Each structure stands twice: as structure tokens, then as C-alpha cells.
Amino acid sequence: MRSDFDAVIIGAGPAGSAAAILLARAGLSVALVEKERFPRRKVCGECIAASNLPLLDALGIGAALEASAGPELRQVGLMRGASCIVADLPPAPDAGSRWGRALGREKFDTLLLDQARAEGALVLQPWRVSAIDGQRCRLDAVDSSATMMVQARVIVAANGSWEALPSARQVRSVGRKPSDLFAFKANFRDTSLQPGLLPVLSFDGGYGGMVVAGDGMTTVACCVRRDRLQSARRAAPGLRAGDAIESLLQRECGGVEAVLQTATRAGPWIAAGPLHPGVHLTAGETFFRIGNAAGEAHPIIGEGISMALQSAFLLCTHLITTLPSVRMPDQAWRHDVGRRYAAEWRRAFEPRLMLAATFAHAAMRNSSGRALLALGHVWPGLLTHGARWSGKVRSAGDPDVAMR
């Protein structure tokens, strides 16, 4: 098996698989490294904004997504206590992709990974990156003691935000803060959630959302502060963390209680965290970052998949147009590409990060959460504008990159 590639991509989520598809289709040799076996469940709200549908068509999975995803998402809501406000979602300008959809990550990620493999990327799974030394990566097999070394002209980090690269594992803070956010997700059958409605949940110490995804399965996801999680567990002694969170949601959001009244949970709650919202791009690194490795918005605006896919397109635009003509990429080339990519990334995504942080902190506090709800009652269109401001109808990625 070869060990020398044009690109090694770490992580086969939406960002990593999208980048692998684009680079392999452009004729570059690609190794895609993923430590988990697929299909696998992943903590995620599972919403795919309409702005991404042309990108997914260009990647080659548009038809498969259309066949598997849930109903078109046409409305957004805000639920807090016994109140629920509903407004229309803004349609995207693309006549063929006007409304977002939702699909479980176990299906969505597998579609993208299979497409990357079909385009010629070498998929190394389940393997993990245990060390990065310049342009060389040490890989360890997950299921055995096997190891290998691979090297590449470029390394792309597409790992999750709480799955640090080897170079960061020793420096990440291990302090525990009451404000740490933990993410939870569960799937339910036979709920009464209106198809096409995307309600945002607001409660003291957290926020969340619900959506009908593929196969009629409803996803309930939320983020909860550490201190509120601890109090929820004390209020429900003997329950697992996820079960305590389910009890909390039903107690504090009447809409959740109504939706789940006749429902059956499909499998256990899954959790991840603590989350690290913010910009993670770092100048001077020898590799490039996309997806959550580059930066993460509070999940309240549901733009995680958007930022993953669109950041992959932004970076690959530069790699596809310059890498084939560079005989041996050097520090100056990496600095120049990294500088231009980082500037584009910040223009595209920093406004979303700021909006998401503002909305998240307002939704998690009693006083501001009630004020937000009161404003929504007077001006429901605020939800429509909020969805537009968060990027639901515009894409930072150019689908034509996939055709080059």
C-alpha cells in the first residue's frame, strides 16, 4: 500500500469527506483517515441548510440525499416554557434547492465517505493519527497493534472540535468550568412534531432543537451548561445523564413534552463535549484546518454542517488551483495559501459565530430568554431574519470547484 500522497485528510465527517472528493476528483492522491467505523451516530442537530444543496449535488450525493432526507424545512419556531412562536424560513434563491432538509449523520456521513472512496481516495478506517511531524503522520490501527507512517504534500485537519490533534493534546486546558457546554442527542419514533418545522428550544442553562429527519425519525438535540447538567442529575437521582436531560427538556419546554407524548426513543441518548465554540485557525501551522477544526459556532443556529462543507470548498479552491503546479510545497506556499484561506473563512463565518453566540447566551438565561420570547411574539419575523443572517440561504462555497 502506498504511503506517499498529495493530501492526507484527518477525519471523514462532512468536511473531510467533501475535501477528499474534491481533491481526488481533481486528480490528486488522497488518504482519508477516520478512527470510527461507519455508519455511526454522531451528536448533531442533523439539519442541512438549503445553501448546501448545490454543493452536495456537485459532490455527487444530491439524488441520494433527496431520496433519504426528511421533509423540506419551511418553518422555524422558538419554544420556551409553555410558549411557541412559529415563522417562515427564508427560501434560498436557487430554484431547485429552496428549502433545507435533515438526515441522520449515520446516513449522511456514509454517503459522503462512499463517494470519496468512489472518486479514488484511499480510506483508512478505523485508523487514528497519533503523531504529526512536519508532513508525516503516524497512524495507529484502532483494532490492532499495527502502525504505519504516511507523508503528504499537504495535511488537512477535519477532526471534531473536542477530538484534538496530537500536537494539541498536551496543551488543551483540562479545567472544569460551570459554563462548559455539553451536547446531547436522541432519536424518537412516532412523535407529533409537525414535518417541516424546525423549533429552537430555550431554557435556563441550555438550548436545543428538534427536527423530523429521514425515515420519519425525529432528532432532539441540545446543549447544556455543566452546572445545569449537574443540577438536572441531582433532581433525577439514579438516571443516566441523557435520561435526566430528557426529563429536564420535557419539564421546561411544553412543546417538547407535547411532541414526545406518544413517542418511543430509538436507542440511548449520546453525548459529547465540552464544546469549544470560536475560531480555531492558528497562524504558522504546517497543516490546514476545515470544519470544526477551523472553528465552531454555537449549535443553536444549526450551521455546523454548513460550515463543514463550505470550509472544505473554500480550502480546496486554493489547493486545486495551486498545488498541482507546486513541485514541493514549502513554508512560503503554505503561509500564502493559509493566509488567503483564513481571510475568506473569517469573512464567511465570523458573523455566524457572533450571531450564534449572541442568540445562545440570550436563550440560556432566564431574563434574556423571556425577553427574546416576548420580542418574538411582537415580531415573529425576527426568526425569519435570524435564519437568513445565520447563512441558511447563502453559501461561502462555489459548487463549480467540484467540476474543475
Plain-language structure description:
The chain has helices spanning 14-25, 53-59, 62-68, 105-118, 226-235, 241-252, 254-259, 304-322, 331-364, 366-378, 381-389, and strands spanning 4-10, 30-33, 47-48, 75-80, 83-88, 101-102, 122-124, 127-133, 136-141, 147-157, 181-189, 197-203, 206-212, 218-225, 264-265, 270-272, 278-279, 288-289, 295-296. Helices cover 35% and strands 24% of the residues. Helix 1 (14-25) packs parallel to helix 8 (304-322), helix 5 (226-235) packs across helix 6 (241-252) and helix 8 packs antiparallel against helix 9. By secondary structure, the protein is of the alpha/beta class. It has a domain at 4-51 and 64-69 and 101-171 and 276-363 and 396-403: 3-Layer(bba) Sandwich (FAD/NAD(P)-binding domain).
CATH class of the domain at 4-51 and 64-69 and 101-171 and 276-363 and 396-403: Alpha Beta
Helix content: 25-40%
CATH topology title of the domain at 4-51 and 64-69 and 101-171 and 276-363 and 396-403: FAD/NAD(P)-binding domain
Mean pLDDT: 93
**Helix-strand string:** EHEEHHEEEHEEEEEEEEHHHEEEEEHHHH
